TrEMBL record:
Pfam families: EF-G_D2, EFG_C, EFG_III, GTP_EFTU. Mitochondrial GTPase that mediates the disassembly of ribosomes from messenger RNA at the termination of mitochondrial protein biosynthesis. Not involved in the GTP-dependent ribosomal translocation step during translation elongation. This is Ribosome-releasing factor 2, mitochondrial. The keyword Isomerase does not apply. One of its GO terms (cellular component) is mitochondrion. InterPro entries: EF-G-like_DII, EFG2, EFG_II, EFG_III, EFG_III/V, EFG_V, EFG_V-like, G_TR_CS. Belongs to the TRAFAC class translation factor GTPase superfamily. Classic translation factor GTPase family. EF-G/EF-2 subfamily. The gene is MEF2. SUPFAM superfamilies: EF-G C-terminal domain-like, P-loop containing nucleoside triphosphate hydrolases, Translation proteins.
């Protein structure tokens, strides 16, 4: 499969270059116009000379056969281009479909800023809320797209942005409409630039031609909107920027128009980088309107690598700060290079390719590097920068850059989520790196969501078994949100994924790309088991002097794992065990100290061995249906011992694995429960259909109704900002009239739909698409998002087990 990432000009990592680098992502609900907007960005930057079209299947970033056939983005695609001559933008266009959420999660991990695209007709949609939360620590700008459509509501969408996303906003530009007396309709033709005091009009015949007019010289109606908009912008920034307020009062003498645009841009930038507010722009990408101001906003407001968040790592007391030459200075070592692997693909020509983000120092081709996540070293092959299917080899990757590791050595030595370190100057300088900090440094790994659907995968003949296993290994290596397991009763191989479309794409990849000769079964819901109470502590030891005391406890399903970990006051370290909300909890040791480690085997090697044995033991399954365990904490007491002269951890693996299996076997049958995936459902229906839909949800679907609200009035759910009245803020925010809503007053916008939110078992949602169409005569729609695993109720247990 062809890769999808970067091509760029080689530059050295000077302060100026780092400050003019932007690593950004495009995030949104499906069909909001992410790929269309990306295509225009590439065109106006001069990267391409012809605009591709999603419907025609010829866009740059969506070039996989499955993407072009379906007209959707399936995997994150990235590209590099320049803007305003000396700014370099690394852009990742992410999928909008909920089934491919992991692609968003891993892209967000390496981004410094995001552009959130909103559909002006649909407003803030369910998947937009989800990706907003997934990128909650990243500065964003918003682009309200599709302003040319009937029913587009700029002001309505901004209000939703404030209330649903719970964010303050800074209006950078507002829509400009032209009234046609013959048709008596308003058509979108440009934007009112509040920062630069201009009106920008795009020609419908030549979108490259932009007419620029002083806003103060336009017709009174437009001038009034501009003046009120600029006043609102300055007031919003004044909430956080005392220097701007001082300039306004002293230098500008209270005149909103007397504040220079460069001062406003600087103020917006500071507020955006600190996430005080979100700049808002608008346009119509398909009509080529508003894209150039959006690109200006990317370089003007989103952070450089020297202003972005410092990645979270496994060492609490490690010093980390910005440095103009090395990027992030870690442990005071200017020769330390740190990179993070966030994506793996298998290219038919170059083989395994590992996509990385360099956070600190310079990564050199053919150097010896150390994988801290695996405690192993290897020699790099060639480094590559990619643009779609065009490769550009390079000898070095600099701080803030995104590139690719290639060569035979990387295939078995690096996976998604691994941290790689090396010496920036020496070919093999690992001996000069600190053993207890720099060689054990790990950027916190990517969180992998659990699978909710599974299919069986079987070789057509016994002779196809090895090729099947290799093909499965390839797709799981590329996409860790695909999970391979084995049914302990039937011996069947199962492939789990995030949704039916996710598994359909995986099936296509297995059969058509990897030529696996397999039979794939029907899609089934993925169930798990959990324990309801804690085990006793058990101690296992062997003749060589290894001794471990372990127990297994349930993790609450009613509390987030972040809250659970935060409430643990024992000083224990929590290590994730795969994607089933299982954790290894390691108590502080009674005698051994990391800062004075005197054993031959490294501490992290011991922990990695117990991690592996815990995962294997929990996957063995529970007693209800032999399904792998979910939400379990394997606790390691702080009195464990190993021989001082032990050099490897091979004997720790079977000892601790058998111990954990024995602990689980000691629990009685009634200590186990069956878990099922429960979805957060959002149904959008006409008001007249609320009764039948509610009856179906609460009856046949076993749903727990959370709320019924008017469309466009659905409240947000970010409780961290609960002290701020965002509804009042939305009402007080100046916003221009929504001109295109007037066109649609007698159409679909005339009567508001209802939004029903509910928790519902995934099993009960099979074939719901046809049901909602039948109940609403085709006018209803729904969106589901994984909420978590819940216990199967007693009245449904029998039917679930009999599937």
């Amino acid at each position: 499969m062809l890769s999808k990432l970067f091509c760029s000009l080689r530059t050295y990592a000077t302060r100026a270059n780092l400050l003019k680098l932007r690593n950004i992502g495009i995030i949104a609900h499906i069909d909001a116009g992410k790929t269309t907007t990306t295509e225009r960005m590439l065109y106006y930057s001069g990267k391409i000379n012809r605009i591709g079209d999603v419907d025609q299947g010829d866009t740059i970033t969506d070039f996989l056969p499955q993407e072009r056939a379906r007209g959707i983005t399936i995997q994150s695609a990235a590209i590099s281009f320049n803007w305003q001559n000396d700014y370099k933008i690394n852009l990742i266009d992410t999928p909008g479909h909920a089934d491919f959420s992991f692609e968003v999660i891993r892209a967000v991990k390496v981004l410094d800023g995001c552009v959130t695209i909103l559909d002006a007709v649909a407003g803030v949609e369910a998947q937009t809320e989800k990706v907003w939360k997934q990128s909650k620590n990243i500065p964003k700008i918003c682009f309200i797209n599709k302003m040319d459509r009937e029913g587009a509501g700029y002001s309505r969408t901004v209000k939703e942005l404030i209330t649903k996303m719970r964010t303050r906003v800074a209006l950078v530009n507002m829509p400009l409409f032209k009234y046609d007396a013959k048709t008596q309709r308003n058509s979108f033709e440009g934007v009112i630039d509040l920062v630069n005091q201009k009106v920008l009009k795009w020609s419908s015949y030549n979108p490259d031609n932009i007419q620029v007019i002083d806003a103060i010289e336009t017709i009174p109606e437009i001038k009034e909107r501009f003046l009120r908009g600029r006043e609102s912008l300055v007031e919003a920034l004044g909430e956080f920027d005392e220097s701007l307020v001082e300039y306004f009062l002293d230098q500008a003498e209270g005149d909103y128009l007397a504040i220079p645009s460069n001062l406003l841009n600087q103020s917006i930038r500071r507020a955006t980088v600190k996430q005080h507010l979100t700049p808002v722009l608008c346009g119509a990408s398909f009509k080529n309107i508003g894209v150039q101001p959006l690109l200006d906003a990317v370089v003007n407001y989103l952070p450089s690598p020297l202003e972005a968040r410092i990645p979270e790592v496994n060492h609490d007391n490690l010093s980390m700060s910005y440095d103009p030459k090395v990027g992030i200075l870690i442990n005071g070592n200017k020769n330390l290079c740190v990179a993070f692997a966030f994506k793996v693909i298998t290219d038919p020509i170059r083989g395994t390719m590992i996509f990385i983000r360099v956070y600190s120092g310079i990564l050199n081709s053919n150097n010896t590097v150390y994988n801290c996540s695996r405690a192993s070293k290897f020699k790099l092959g060639k480094l590559v920068l990619l643009h779609a299917n065009v490769y550009e080899e390079t000898s070095q990757l600099y701080p803030g850059e995104i590139g690719v590791l290639t060569g035979a050595t990387v295939a078995n030595n690096v996976s998604t989520g691994d941290t790689i370190v090396s010496h920036s100057l020496k070919k093999d300088g690992l001996k000069s790196l600190d053993r207890n900090t720099e060689l054990t440094l790990r950027i916190n790994p990517i969180t992998v969501p659990p699978p909710v659907f599974v299919v069986s995968v079987e070789p057509r003949t016994l002779g196809n078994k090895k090729s099947m296993e290799e093909a499965l290994r390839v797709i799981v290596r590329e996409d860790p949100s695909l999970v391979v397991s084995k049914d302990e009763e039937t011996g069947q191989t199962l492939l789990g994924g995030m949704g039916e479309l996710h598994l359909e794409i995986a099936k296509d990849r297995l059969l058509n790309d990897l030529n696996a000769d397999v039979n794939i079964g029907k899609v089934m819901v993925s169930y798990k088991e959990a324990i309801d109470h804690s085990s006793q502590e058990f101690t296992a030891e062997n003749d060589n002097g290894c001794k471990f005391t372990l127990s297994v406890e349930p993790i609450s399903l009613d509390t987030s794992i972040e809250e659970t970990i935060a409430s643990d006051e024992s000083g224990s370290k929590w290590y994730p065990l795969g994607g089933d909300n299982n954790y290894l909890v390691v108590e502080p040791h009674d005698t051994y100290r990391l800062d004075n480690w005197n054993l031959l085997v490294p501490y992290h090697s011991i922990i990695n061995a117990i991690l592996s044995s815990s995962i294997a033991a929990l996957q063995k399954g529970g007693k209800v249906a032999n399904l792998s365990l979910h939400s379990c904490a394997v606790k390691l007491k702080g009195n464990w011992k190993i021989p001082l002269d032990m050099e490897n951890v091979s004997e720790i693996l079977p000892l601790t694995r058998n111990q954990i299996v024995g602990i689980l076997d000691s629990l009685p049958f009634d200590a186990y429960s069956l878990l099922e995936p429960v979805m957060l459902l959002e149904v959008n229906i006409p008001q007249k259909d609320v009764g039948p839909v509610m009856q179906d949800l609460t009856g046949a679907r076993k749903a727990n109704i959370l709320s019924i609200e008017d469309e466009y009035e659905v409240s947000g759910s970010n409780e961290d900002l609960s002290s701020i009245d965002f509804h009042r803020m939305a009402q007080q925010q100046y916003l221009p009239p929504d001109m295109t809503l007037k066109n649609a007053q007698l159409g679909d916008i005339g009567s508001s739909n209802k939004i029903i939110r509910a928790f519902v078992p995934l099993r009960e949602m099979v074939a719901y698409t046809n049901k909602i169409r039948s109940l609403t005569q085709g006018r209803g729609s729904f969106h589901m998002d994984y909420h978590g695993m819940h216990k199967v109720t007693h009245d449904r247990l029998g039917s679930v087990l009999n599937e």
